[in-house]
Amino acid sequence: MPQTDTTDVTTAPQLAIFTDFDGTLVELAETPDGIDVPESLAHQIEQTAREMNSAFAVLTGREIADIDKFLSPLILPIAGAHGTQRRRADGVVEEIDPASLSGAEAIARAIEPLIQAHPDLIMETKEGAVALHFRQAPELEDVVRHAMQDAVADNEHFTLVPGKMVLEARPRGVSKGEALRAFMREEPFIGRTPIFIGDDVTDEDGFIAAQDLGGVGIKLGDGDTAARMRIADVVSVRALLQGLGDIAARDREFSPKH
Ligand SMILES: O=P(O)(O)OC[C@H]1O[C@H](O[C@H]2O[C@H](CO)[C@@H](O)[C@H](O)[C@H]2O)[C@H](O)[C@@H](O)[C@@H]1O
Fold first, then answer.
1. Average pLDDT of the residues of the chain
2. Which residue lies with its CA nearest to atom 15 of ligand 1?
3. What is the CATH number of domain 98-171?
4. ipTM of the complex
5. pLDDT confidence bin for 70, thresholds 50/70/90
6. CATH 3.40.50.1000 residue ranges in the chain?
7. Three-state SS at 196
8. pTM for the complete prediction?
Protein backbone atom coordinates (compact mmCIF):
# COMPACT_ATOMS: atom_id res chain seq x y z
CA MET A 1 0.00 0.00 0.00
CA PRO A 2 1.41 3.48 -0.91
CA GLN A 3 2.59 5.55 2.04
CA THR A 4 1.08 9.01 2.55
CA ASP A 5 3.76 11.72 2.71
CA THR A 6 2.98 13.52 5.95
CA THR A 7 6.06 15.76 5.76
CA ASP A 8 4.41 18.09 3.20
CA VAL A 9 2.39 20.19 5.60
CA THR A 10 0.06 22.57 3.76
CA THR A 11 -0.72 25.72 5.71
CA ALA A 12 -3.69 28.02 5.22
CA PRO A 13 -2.96 31.22 3.27
CA GLN A 14 -1.98 34.19 5.37
CA LEU A 15 -4.58 36.87 4.94
CA ALA A 16 -4.45 40.63 4.61
CA ILE A 17 -7.78 42.13 5.64
CA PHE A 18 -9.16 45.34 4.17
CA THR A 19 -12.54 46.70 5.21
CA ASP A 20 -14.76 49.60 4.37
CA PHE A 21 -16.08 51.56 7.38
CA ASP A 22 -19.62 53.00 7.03
CA GLY A 23 -22.21 50.31 6.39
CA THR A 24 -19.62 47.57 6.88
CA LEU A 25 -17.95 47.99 10.30
CA VAL A 26 -20.73 50.25 11.60
CA GLU A 27 -24.40 50.65 10.73
CA LEU A 28 -25.43 53.59 8.59
CA ALA A 29 -27.02 56.56 10.36
CA GLU A 30 -29.00 59.64 9.38
CA THR A 31 -25.92 61.89 9.44
CA PRO A 32 -22.14 61.30 9.15
CA ASP A 33 -21.63 62.25 12.81
CA GLY A 34 -24.62 60.22 13.99
CA ILE A 35 -23.10 56.76 13.71
CA ASP A 36 -23.05 54.46 16.70
CA VAL A 37 -19.56 53.02 17.12
CA PRO A 38 -19.66 50.24 19.72
CA GLU A 39 -16.94 50.57 22.35
CA SER A 40 -15.89 47.01 21.61
CA LEU A 41 -15.16 47.68 17.91
CA ALA A 42 -11.65 49.13 18.30
CA HIS A 43 -10.67 46.35 20.70
CA GLN A 44 -11.99 43.65 18.37
CA ILE A 45 -10.20 45.10 15.34
CA GLU A 46 -7.01 45.44 17.36
CA GLN A 47 -7.20 41.72 18.24
CA THR A 48 -7.87 40.63 14.66
CA ALA A 49 -5.14 42.92 13.31
CA ARG A 50 -2.68 41.44 15.80
CA GLU A 51 -3.50 37.91 14.62
CA MET A 52 -2.93 39.11 11.01
CA ASN A 53 0.50 40.44 11.96
CA SER A 54 -0.95 43.97 11.50
CA ALA A 55 -2.01 43.28 7.91
CA PHE A 56 -5.35 45.01 8.49
CA ALA A 57 -6.36 48.30 6.85
CA VAL A 58 -9.49 50.40 6.52
CA LEU A 59 -10.33 51.72 3.04
CA THR A 60 -12.91 54.44 3.52
CA GLY A 61 -14.57 57.46 1.99
CA ARG A 62 -14.08 59.27 5.30
CA GLU A 63 -10.96 61.18 6.25
CA ILE A 64 -8.27 59.31 8.15
CA ALA A 65 -8.78 61.65 11.14
CA ASP A 66 -12.43 60.62 11.31
CA ILE A 67 -11.60 56.92 11.55
CA ASP A 68 -8.89 57.64 14.14
CA LYS A 69 -11.50 59.45 16.23
CA PHE A 70 -14.06 56.65 15.96
CA LEU A 71 -11.54 53.86 16.64
CA SER A 72 -9.42 55.69 19.23
CA PRO A 73 -6.87 54.76 20.55
CA LEU A 74 -6.27 52.40 17.62
CA ILE A 75 -4.07 53.76 14.82
CA LEU A 76 -4.47 51.60 11.71
CA PRO A 77 -3.17 51.76 8.17
CA ILE A 78 -5.94 53.69 6.41
CA ALA A 79 -6.79 54.91 2.93
CA GLY A 80 -9.07 57.92 3.49
CA ALA A 81 -11.25 60.06 1.21
CA HIS A 82 -11.57 57.09 -1.19
CA GLY A 83 -7.79 56.70 -1.46
CA THR A 84 -6.90 60.39 -1.73
CA GLN A 85 -5.21 60.06 1.65
CA ARG A 86 -3.10 57.06 2.68
CA ARG A 87 -1.39 56.24 5.96
CA ARG A 88 0.92 53.28 5.52
CA ALA A 89 1.49 50.55 8.09
CA ASP A 90 4.75 52.27 9.15
CA GLY A 91 2.66 55.30 10.15
CA VAL A 92 3.87 57.53 7.30
CA VAL A 93 1.08 59.60 5.75
CA GLU A 94 1.60 60.12 2.03
CA GLU A 95 1.64 63.64 0.65
CA ILE A 96 -1.48 64.65 -1.25
CA ASP A 97 -1.21 66.20 -4.69
CA PRO A 98 -1.65 69.99 -4.13
CA ALA A 99 -4.02 70.06 -7.13
CA SER A 100 -6.34 67.70 -5.23
CA LEU A 101 -6.31 69.91 -2.16
CA SER A 102 -6.98 73.17 -3.99
CA GLY A 103 -9.49 71.49 -6.33
CA ALA A 104 -11.55 70.16 -3.42
CA GLU A 105 -11.51 73.59 -1.77
CA ALA A 106 -12.79 75.17 -4.98
CA ILE A 107 -15.57 72.57 -5.30
CA ALA A 108 -16.62 73.16 -1.68
CA ARG A 109 -16.75 76.93 -2.30
CA ALA A 110 -18.91 76.39 -5.37
CA ILE A 111 -21.34 74.17 -3.39
CA GLU A 112 -21.58 76.46 -0.35
CA PRO A 113 -24.48 78.61 -1.68
CA LEU A 114 -26.54 75.44 -2.21
CA ILE A 115 -25.99 74.46 1.43
CA GLN A 116 -27.10 77.93 2.52
CA ALA A 117 -30.26 77.56 0.43
CA HIS A 118 -30.96 73.97 1.58
CA PRO A 119 -29.81 73.45 5.18
CA ASP A 120 -30.95 69.81 5.04
CA LEU A 121 -28.05 69.06 2.71
CA ILE A 122 -24.78 68.18 4.44
CA MET A 123 -21.44 68.96 2.85
CA GLU A 124 -18.33 67.19 4.11
CA THR A 125 -15.14 68.87 3.02
CA LYS A 126 -12.19 66.52 3.17
CA GLU A 127 -8.54 66.76 2.24
CA GLY A 128 -8.78 66.40 -1.53
CA ALA A 129 -12.46 65.39 -1.75
CA VAL A 130 -15.98 66.72 -1.13
CA ALA A 131 -19.12 64.79 -0.18
CA LEU A 132 -22.62 66.22 -0.58
CA HIS A 133 -25.19 64.25 1.43
CA PHE A 134 -28.91 64.33 0.66
CA ARG A 135 -30.16 61.67 3.11
CA GLN A 136 -32.17 64.35 4.95
CA ALA A 137 -33.61 65.67 1.67
CA PRO A 138 -33.90 62.83 -0.87
CA GLU A 139 -36.08 65.02 -3.08
CA LEU A 140 -32.97 67.13 -3.77
CA GLU A 141 -31.00 64.31 -5.40
CA ASP A 142 -31.26 65.85 -8.89
CA VAL A 143 -30.38 69.29 -7.55
CA VAL A 144 -27.32 67.80 -5.85
CA ARG A 145 -26.24 65.99 -9.01
CA HIS A 146 -26.50 69.09 -11.17
CA ALA A 147 -24.69 71.25 -8.62
CA MET A 148 -21.85 68.75 -8.26
CA GLN A 149 -21.60 68.31 -12.05
CA ASP A 150 -21.30 72.09 -12.42
CA ALA A 151 -18.76 72.27 -9.61
CA VAL A 152 -16.41 69.73 -11.22
CA ALA A 153 -17.08 70.81 -14.82
CA ASP A 154 -14.09 73.15 -14.89
CA ASN A 155 -11.79 70.74 -13.12
CA GLU A 156 -10.68 67.72 -15.16
CA HIS A 157 -8.71 66.56 -12.15
CA PHE A 158 -11.93 65.46 -10.39
CA THR A 159 -14.64 62.91 -11.00
CA LEU A 160 -17.97 62.21 -9.27
CA VAL A 161 -18.70 58.97 -7.45
CA PRO A 162 -22.12 57.99 -6.07
CA GLY A 163 -22.61 56.52 -2.63
CA LYS A 164 -25.50 55.84 -0.29
CA MET A 165 -27.56 59.07 -0.37
CA VAL A 166 -24.39 60.98 -1.18
CA LEU A 167 -22.51 62.22 -4.22
CA GLU A 168 -18.79 62.73 -3.86
CA ALA A 169 -16.09 64.51 -5.87
CA ARG A 170 -12.72 62.80 -5.70
CA PRO A 171 -9.54 63.13 -7.78
CA ARG A 172 -9.31 60.94 -10.86
CA GLY A 173 -6.90 58.03 -10.52
CA VAL A 174 -7.45 57.42 -6.83
CA SER A 175 -9.73 54.65 -5.63
CA LYS A 176 -9.98 52.01 -2.97
CA GLY A 177 -8.61 49.55 -5.54
CA GLU A 178 -5.45 51.60 -6.08
CA ALA A 179 -5.07 51.99 -2.32
CA LEU A 180 -5.40 48.23 -1.77
CA ARG A 181 -2.78 47.55 -4.48
CA ALA A 182 -0.41 50.07 -2.86
CA PHE A 183 -0.78 48.44 0.57
CA MET A 184 -0.20 45.01 -0.96
CA ARG A 185 3.22 46.13 -2.27
CA GLU A 186 4.31 46.95 1.29
CA GLU A 187 5.00 45.20 4.59
CA PRO A 188 3.20 43.63 6.39
CA PHE A 189 0.69 43.06 3.56
CA ILE A 190 3.10 41.85 0.86
CA GLY A 191 2.86 38.12 0.09
CA ARG A 192 -0.50 37.76 1.85
CA THR A 193 -3.90 37.02 0.31
CA PRO A 194 -6.17 40.07 0.35
CA ILE A 195 -9.77 40.06 1.49
CA PHE A 196 -11.79 43.23 1.06
CA ILE A 197 -15.22 43.65 2.67
CA GLY A 198 -17.49 46.53 1.62
CA ASP A 199 -21.07 47.51 0.97
CA ASP A 200 -21.11 50.33 -1.56
CA VAL A 201 -20.46 51.21 -5.20
CA THR A 202 -17.11 52.80 -4.34
CA ASP A 203 -16.01 49.46 -2.89
CA GLU A 204 -16.20 47.75 -6.28
CA ASP A 205 -12.65 48.87 -7.23
CA GLY A 206 -11.45 47.30 -4.00
CA PHE A 207 -13.21 43.98 -4.72
CA ILE A 208 -11.65 43.85 -8.19
CA ALA A 209 -8.18 44.66 -6.89
CA ALA A 210 -8.38 42.04 -4.12
CA GLN A 211 -9.51 39.40 -6.60
CA ASP A 212 -6.86 40.40 -9.21
CA LEU A 213 -4.29 39.77 -6.50
CA GLY A 214 -5.62 36.27 -5.79
CA GLY A 215 -7.93 37.17 -2.95
CA VAL A 216 -11.64 37.67 -2.41
CA GLY A 217 -14.08 40.55 -2.44
CA ILE A 218 -16.99 40.24 -0.02
CA LYS A 219 -20.02 42.42 -0.67
CA LEU A 220 -22.34 43.24 2.20
CA GLY A 221 -25.98 43.26 1.13
CA ASP A 222 -27.73 43.23 -2.22
CA GLY A 223 -26.92 44.82 -5.54
CA ASP A 224 -24.74 44.07 -8.54
CA THR A 225 -21.16 43.45 -7.62
CA ALA A 226 -17.83 42.13 -8.86
CA ALA A 227 -17.28 40.54 -5.45
CA ARG A 228 -17.24 36.74 -5.43
CA MET A 229 -18.79 36.45 -2.01
CA ARG A 230 -21.54 38.13 -0.04
CA ILE A 231 -22.20 38.75 3.61
CA ALA A 232 -25.53 39.66 5.17
CA ASP A 233 -24.90 42.51 7.58
CA VAL A 234 -22.59 44.43 9.91
CA VAL A 235 -23.02 41.88 12.71
CA SER A 236 -21.86 39.13 10.35
CA VAL A 237 -18.83 41.20 9.29
CA ARG A 238 -17.77 41.51 12.90
CA ALA A 239 -18.28 37.78 13.44
CA LEU A 240 -16.20 37.07 10.32
CA LEU A 241 -13.35 39.29 11.52
CA GLN A 242 -13.43 37.54 14.89
CA GLY A 243 -13.43 34.14 13.17
CA LEU A 244 -10.56 34.98 10.81
CA GLY A 245 -8.52 36.21 13.74
CA ASP A 246 -9.22 33.02 15.68
CA ILE A 247 -8.24 30.87 12.69
CA ALA A 248 -4.98 32.79 12.21
CA ALA A 249 -4.17 32.33 15.91
CA ARG A 250 -4.92 28.61 15.74
CA ASP A 251 -2.86 28.19 12.57
CA ARG A 252 0.10 29.81 14.26
CA GLU A 253 -0.31 27.60 17.30
CA PHE A 254 -0.28 24.44 15.21
CA SER A 255 2.25 25.67 12.66
CA PRO A 256 5.34 23.41 12.40
CA LYS A 257 7.53 26.50 12.93
CA HIS A 258 5.76 27.44 16.14
O1 LIG B 1 -16.26 54.15 2.32
P2 LIG B 1 -17.07 54.25 3.56
O3 LIG B 1 -16.29 54.02 4.80
O4 LIG B 1 -18.32 53.43 3.51
O5 LIG B 1 -17.54 55.79 3.60
C6 LIG B 1 -18.49 56.24 2.64
C7 LIG B 1 -19.13 57.50 3.14
O8 LIG B 1 -19.64 57.18 4.44
C9 LIG B 1 -20.25 58.23 5.16
O10 LIG B 1 -21.50 58.50 4.57
C11 LIG B 1 -22.37 57.40 4.65
O12 LIG B 1 -22.60 57.09 6.02
C13 LIG B 1 -23.31 58.12 6.76
C14 LIG B 1 -23.39 57.67 8.20
O15 LIG B 1 -24.00 56.43 8.28
C16 LIG B 1 -24.69 58.31 6.14
O17 LIG B 1 -25.41 59.33 6.84
C18 LIG B 1 -24.52 58.70 4.68
O19 LIG B 1 -25.79 58.79 4.03
C20 LIG B 1 -23.68 57.65 3.93
O21 LIG B 1 -23.42 58.07 2.60
C22 LIG B 1 -19.36 59.43 5.24
O23 LIG B 1 -20.07 60.51 5.80
C24 LIG B 1 -18.75 59.82 3.90
O25 LIG B 1 -17.75 60.81 4.08
C26 LIG B 1 -18.08 58.59 3.29
O27 LIG B 1 -17.53 58.92 2.03
1. 94
2. 28
3. 3.30.70.1020
4. 0.99
5. very high
6. 15-95+174-254
7. strand
8. 0.94
